[in-house]
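Page 37, continued from 36.
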């Protein structure tokens, strides 16, 4: 059983009519993790992820995109 609060925030910016930039951040505030009945509660670190997406419109129906992410999720 896992108890946690999950948060996310996103920013979208369009510097030109053809270019769109998006930055998203996800955060999981883990309160408690219990795998089996009778097992002690495990306090885990809080995982997070940041994602970046760039999208460029070549024409009305064609676009190219590039994305990347950084993730931190350390589980015992």
């Amino acid at each position: 059983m896992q108890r946690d609060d999950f948060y996310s925030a996103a920013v979208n910016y369009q510097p030109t009519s053809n270019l769109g930039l998006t930055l998203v951040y996800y955060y999981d505030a883990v309160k408690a993790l219990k795998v089996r009945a009778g097992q002690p509660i495990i306090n885990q670190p809080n995982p997070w992820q940041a994602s970046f997406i760039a999208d460029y419109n070549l024409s009305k129906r064609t676009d190219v995109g590039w994305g990347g992410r950084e993730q931190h999720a350390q589980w015992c």
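The chain has one domain: 2-72. Flag for discussion at group meeting. The first strand starts at residue 2 and ends at 13.
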